[in-house]
Amino acid sequence: MPSKSKKSSGGKLGKGEDFTEIPLNDIVVKTGNVSALDDDVPYLQDRIEGLPDGLQAYKPRSGLRKYKKTAKSFIPYRKKTKNVECARIDSAGCFSVITYSWLSALIYRMWKSNDVKQSDLYTCSIYDNTNSNTVRLEHRWNGEVARVGPQKASLARAVWAFCRTRILVGQAFFILCCIVGFFGPAIFVRKILEYAETKGMNSTVGRGITLVVGLTACEVVRSLMFAATWAVNLRTGARIRAGILGLVFEKILRLRTLGDKSAGEFVNLFANDGIRIFEGVTLGPLVVGGPLVVMMGLAYVVWLLGGWGAIGMLVFVFFYFIQMIIAKIAVYLRRKSIVATDKRVRLMTEVLTYVKLIKMYAWERSFAKAVSGLRVTERNWLQRAAYLQSMAVGLTPIVPMAAAVVTFISHTLSGNDLTVSQAFTVVAVYNTMRFSISILIYSARCSAEMIVSFRRIKTILLMEEVTHKVVKPSKPELALEIKNATFSWDAPTSVGPSSVANCEANGKASGGKSPNKEKYGKAKSKKGAPVDVVDEEEEELQQAATMEVKQVEALQNIDLQVEKGRLIGICGSVGSGKSSLLSAVLGQMRMNDGTLGIDGRFAYVAQQAWIINASVRENITFGADFDSKRYYEAIYASCLNTDIAMLANGDETEVGERGVNLSGGQKQRISLARAFYTNSDIYLLDDPLSSVDTRVGQHIFKHLIRGSLKGKTIRKLMTEEESGTGSVKWVTYKSYIAAAGGCCVLFGVVTLFLIVVCTIGFSNIWLSYWLRAGSGGVNMTREVTDGNMTYEETYVSESIMDNPRVGFYQLVYGLSIIAMVTTACFRSVIFMKVSLIASSRLHDMLFIKVLRSPMRFFDSTPVGRIINRFSTDMDEIDVRLPYLSEMALITLLFIFTALFLIAAVFPWFLIGVIPLCLAFSIVMKCFQTSIRQLKRLENLTRSPLFSHVTSSVQGLATIHAYNKARDTITKFNSLLDDHTTTYFLFHCAARWLAVRLDVITLSATVTTALLCVLMVGDQGAAWSGLALTYAMTLSGMFQFTIRLLSEAESRFTCVERIHHYIQHLESESSTEVELLNHAEKSWPQNGSIRFQKVCLKYREGLPLVLKDLTLEIKAGEKIGICGRTGAGKSSLGTALFRLVELESGYISIDTVDISKVGLEDLRSRIAIIPQDPVLFAGTIRYNLDPFNSSDDESLWAALEKTHMKENIKNLELQLNAPVIENGENFSVGERQLVCMARALLRNNKVAVSYISCQMFVHSHMNLSVAEFDTPQTLLADKKSLFSSMVASADQQMRAQLPSSQISVSR
Fold first, then answer.
1. C-alpha 1105: how far from its chain's center?
2. 37, 116, 827, 1265: which has the highest count of C-beta atoms within 10 A?
3. Cα angle, residue 292 at apex, residues 331 and 392 outer, rounded to 5°
4. pLDDT at residue 1046 greater than cutoff 70
5. What's 547's DSSP letter?
6. Is residue 1234 within 8 Å of 1183, Cβ to Cβ?
7. CB 280 within 8 A of CB 423
């Protein structure tokens, strides 16, 4: 854990004093005059002290004066600051911000080095960091709740109040962008085409060049305004994302129970909903551009073509209406798909967390089927949403063409003439409108998904924080006093979502919402029908705000007084409430009656040790300053000297996630050392010696519990994150193509895209062909009056309406709509079908590969990193990669079409393209290197963030007991700031490229316009209009396409990471090797086991843990393996279950060499009672028999044998009673008994049980058999090691027990 962050030197802010504010926003952090929030003022004061010094400097101003600091951002040029702590963007001038020139130095550095680390990036701005934005957003959210109440409170309103000024500024820039972008084609394109129509006869070349300059100016302003929009919105999105995720994490740390939420669900929220919110904030405000441009277009087309022009505008209006419907449906589909994803990720988290147990039970196939079932459900919802999204994307480029067809057909059918300048000006205007509508689609979808995320987050923010008032004890000599107190757990009313997922995957019905934490003993919850699962979030939110929580009283009428310095032992049977009493003291239970008095600080050692993913030393010091004397005293008192000495890096050795490379006893002793090091006043130890052997237990009891606390109440196994270098390799694309169906499928899909683009291009070409045909050379007569004389004159008509084939032109032009819509829809369905097939196959291959990986992979890889593949990476491949690839392919083919047509009309254009291509290649070479590195760094900084969230959720009780919430938040803020930096820079790099590509495409547009003016007469006005229209589309489309291609490539890094696992993860031996001599399915019939010269080590480079072990266990024998903690007893089970293959020797069961037996056959024939009792979120029935292979009678019989039958019968739903994540609503003893019942159900001839009462042999890490016989025989031999250990233990324990007070609970 990191050390506590330094407080700002700005001083405290008390009531009546000044408050802080942040630029470009009218939100203030205010501690005075809070009215209804007065109770929160001390908390906010403490939070404000942690704000950076820069924020403390901002004082409130009235009116525009409060933006004085922000106004400096509008200075065109600002000198670089010498303050190294100042983020580069904070000292950039207006021009640098808009053009992203402040990023150029970093991009150049990344291009040169190609190996930039996180430390090489710019620091996170004080205005964008997590702490600053969390405290401001928290103030707004608290105000919203106080104003309208929790049920009606809207997180969206709080966010709007948090950043409305920035959103409005961004929208203002975008509105200017749309207006100026509209004037370019509406005024200057029309004038240039009129100049071409008259072949310059009515004006000079100078006037034509002036028109080109005016068009250029409009495009420059449009590009700058669009860049300014992104400059504001990207930073706003980064701030809101940081604030919301920080707010959620702090809320989690204030919870005493997680209710129906799991660690996997929280990871999914931080992974996916954070992205949804960022995109919703950055793109959502751009929705204003669509209606504005439609209104301007309507007015302009009606002015240009008359009333018939309005008919074509109805196409846009209709499409806009369709987008509103799509957005509503998208909310529904997104909600459903998120629920499905949550279920899958939640089950995946359980599978990966307890993969060792799953392997021992040979449940891989069954859990793979369960995950596959959830994936099918998820895919069905994703597929519906994908079809809808693809239809919208596919129809977007067709809309302007369809509008043009409808407009021109209606206009000409009414007898009106149509000129080249009119036609292609309207086409250019419609293409401008297409840009706004394209953004409208994305904006509407992102806004809809953001709203879904807000609702999900609101359910967390409204979770109840169980607190009760703590007073001072009645006497000064008391450390703890409980008077007539009754404590209860929140009772689950039904089965939770996780179990719903499990039951759905296994064909069982289940209902209801997940339980809150409950302890089951003899107490019985109130009767009531289970609540059905409700997916509709509105009803869920209403229930969250109004539902009364059921409670189960676990401790009644408790009276307890504990004097300072006394040692108290609490005894009782399994499930009697021993752990509940400690939980009550720690504030994790509801106190319904009585009082709780505490005088002193807590240290807490949980029954299941909580270890953070850090070094041994960091686990012990736990964020406190290092005190060498006390540290080494803690090491000695906890008997860790020998263990640390054997680690390659001593106490600096990384212990891995959840301490995966430590034994259970070592983890518990580290937890004890942590408690000692804190030098607290009250120590709560929940069965602290259960995982250590007798000698170590005696040492700890003597030197730690009765000694140091008297008077007071392996090497680094972490693997680096896989980070590729250079461009995404072809093998990655090949793997995705293969998953989609192969090269033939790819060719078919690309052909469909090409057909769609050709149909759209044909529509424009046909229009040019029609207009160029004119009247078809028809001679017309007209009366001419010359003075008093009137005569008829013959002339060649210039009106297309006089062409005898006008009907044919109209028919073909009209039918092009049908061709465009039909091909686009067909292409959309096929593309999304293929994309989801690819993602699903990748998911299935990844899951099977991970599940079949040996245990050493899971021991050295954090679960958060693996979950990252199944959550964020799969979400990218499921949703974003298809969207980006689809858009990129469409726009890329449009660009090729545009360049081809321009070059066909003006061959001289190719000369101007050469320097543009050179500039483009230079820019792209720099950009591609940087964007790939930034994306990979973003991936790298994401995994530690998720691992920290998972670890914090699992260790809430310990964090609360040690009062380490602030340190945990500080570390979270640091990790999120690192990720925010890479995430923000990644998007800024894309905009850096966009601005520079706009310069290149603007040059192409200017070149085409100049050719239209200078080569007037060489080409017809119709073909000039076609070329200029396509050139205008390049200005926005080119940079958009390159950005899409770059982002698509960066998303392919997710495919790269998954492909890396699929290709490089080592697999266990075959699961289905036939038994020797085709042994019967009843093998083993007897259960005799023989170890013959067995040697075992966990991985290359480590010493042997089993060396030449020879041992024979006869059928029916019950053998106890005794040894000190860490001696290698568990390694026997590891070898027997073949979790690690032997170095030499062999193990046989009933004379069959187990190395010749398939893993599934072997493991399914051995029962296991694990050292750490594992229960899955679900029901009692699900935990006993996850895959419905036993009837109820067998389940009850197994429970009766483990003395749990009565306990389960006392539960309201009995076998269907809910079990929350990790079985936290049962005591550890009850969990162990359920695990025993689970093992009994298997009825195997061989059973392995890890017992917590362990004694030692003389070897530590090199297990061998010192003596082997029955306990009676060994005890009779006074010279045996076993006899001496029992005698020593009995003598020492007899001497120690009388001085202790024992409390026996019923």
1. 39
2. 827
3. 40
4. yes
5. P
6. yes
7. no
Cα 855 to Cα 356: distance, rounded to the nearest angstrom: 7
Residue 949 tokens, joined: 């969230």
1145: three-class secondary structure by DSSP: strand
Tokens at 816, concatenated: 């092009």
Strands 602-605 and 682-685: parallel
Sequence-distant (≥ 6) Cβ neighbours of residue 280 within 8 angstroms:
446, 447, 449, 450, 451, 453
Tokens, residue 152: 């009606």
Q: CA-to-CA distance for 304 and 639, rounded, in angstroms?
A: 90
Residue 133 token pair: 């934005």
Stretch among 287-291, 503-507, 1011-1015 having the lowest mean pLDDT? 503-507
| Number of C-beta neighbours around residue 50 at 10 A | 20
Nearest to 610 by CA among 970, 1128, 1130, 961: 961
Task: With H, G, I as helix, E, B as strand and everything else as coil, classify residue 833.
Answer: helix
C-alpha 654/C-alpha 612 separation (Å) is 10
CB 312 within 8 A of CB 197: no
Phi and psi (nearest 5°) for 311? Answer: -65, -45
Instruction: Give residues with Cβ within 8 angstroms of 1077, minimum separation 6.
Output: none
Q: Judge whether residue 338 has pLDDT over 60.
A: yes
Residue type, 423: A
Residue 59 pLDDT exceeds 70: no
Return the SS3 of 2: coil
Distance (Å) of CA 207 to CA 421, 981, 1281: 17, 50, 108
Q: Is 611 exposed, middle or buried (0-12, 13-18, 19+ CB in 10 A)?
A: buried
DSSP 727: S
| CA dist., res. 1262 & res. 436, Å (int) | 71
pLDDT in tens, 419-459: 888 888 888 888 888 777 777 777 887 888 888 888 888 88
By the 8 A CB rule, do 107 and 954 touch? no
Task: Could you list the beta-strand ranges (E) of 1030-1165.
Answer: 1089-1096, 1106-1113, 1144-1149, 1152-1153
Q: What is the largest CA-CA distance in the chain?
A: 149
Per DSSP, what are the bridge partners of residue 784?
791
Under the banding of pLDDT at 50, 70 and 90, the label for residue 487 is confident
Q: Which helix (H) or strand (E) is 740 found in, with range?
A: helix 730-740
Cα–Cα distance measured from residue 358 to residue 939, given in angstroms and rounded to the nearest whole number: 29
Contact by Cβ (8 Å): 182, 297: yes
For helices 420-461 and 205-254, give the axis angle rounded to 10 degrees.
10
- pLDDT bin (cut points 50, 70, 90) of residue 1128 is low
Please, are residues 1241 and 1198 in contact by the beta-carbon 8 Å criterion? yes
Give the three-class secondary structure for 1202: coil
How many CB atoms are closer than 10 A to CB 1219? 28
Residue 1288 CA neighbour count, 13 Å, CB half:
16
Tokens of residue 778, six digits: 């028809």
* 183 pLDDT more than 50: yes
DSSP 400-425: HHHHHHHHHHHHHHTT----HHHHHH
Identify whether the C-beta of residue 415 lies closer than 8 Å to the C-beta of residue 802.
no
User: What does residue 235 show for φ and ψ, rounded to 5 degrees?
Assistant: -70, -35
β-strands 779-786, 789-796 pairing: antiparallel
Beta bridge partners, 596, equal 470, 482
Question: Which pair of structure tokens corresponds to residue 211?
Answer: 């028109």
3 state DSSP class of 570? strand
Report the pLDDT value the prediction gives residue 240, as an integer from 0 to 100. Answer: 92
Nearest-angstrom CA–CA distance, 1047 and 1226: 47
Query: What are 1146's strand-pairing partners?
Result: 1092
For 41, 960, 1133, 1222, the CA distances from 1130, given in Å and listed in that order, are: 53, 32, 5, 22
H helices present in 130-256, as ranges = 130-148, 155-183, 190-197, 205-254
